[in-house]
Amino acid sequence: NITMSLSEAEVQSARGAWEKIYVDAEDNGTTVLVRMFTEHPDTKSYFTHFKGMDSAEEMKQSDQVRGHGKKVFSAINDMVQHLDNSEAFLGIVTPLGKKHATQLKIDPKNFRIICDLILQLMEEKFGADCKASFEKVTNEICTHLNNIYKEEGW
């Protein structure tokens, strides 16, 4: 099912919320990843080059963690730009989902973890309204990723 459940108004407020956090994509992306690795240490096992890092400080300084944080935020940014065009949205989500399912073999629950950490950071920095207006977007992203995983036999 490729219909998006967001109204035009919801798309606009979600974009406004996302813009606030995307301004500092690398720092905020890094914060989200570092929280994931520290709160869910098993997620580090997917990243061989992060494995030896135990302290959050060390992770924050890592070019690889920062690079991947920025990459995650860029991918979400591409999706956010196409929330009103389900074909374009799926054109971004589908290859991403397939790659993580088949090549990287990342457990799909990690997408929900990342989305929840992004929402948490939005709330801390910009308040509950900001978080609320982006929540539906994270649900869309996770739903579509989960569907792709099912198609890939997860």
TrEMBL record:
InterPro entries: Globin, Globin-like_sf, Globin/Proto, Globin_lamprey/hagfish. Gene3D superfamilies: Globins. Its EC number is 1.15.1.1. One of its GO terms (molecular function) is oxygen binding. It catalyses: 2 superoxide + 2 H(+) = H2O2 + O2; H2O2 + AH2 = A + 2 H2O; Fe(II)-heme b-[protein] + nitric oxide + O2 = Fe(III)-heme b-[protein] + nitrate; Fe(III)-heme b-[protein] + nitric oxide + H2O = Fe(II)-heme b-[protein] + nitrite + 2 H(+). It comes from the Eukaryota. Keywords: Heme, Iron, Metal-binding, Oxygen transport, Transport. Residues 5-150 form the Globin domain. Involved in oxygen transport from the lung to the various peripheral tissues. Belongs to the globin family. This is superoxide dismutase. It comes from Climacteris rufus (rufous treecreeper). The gene is Cygb1.
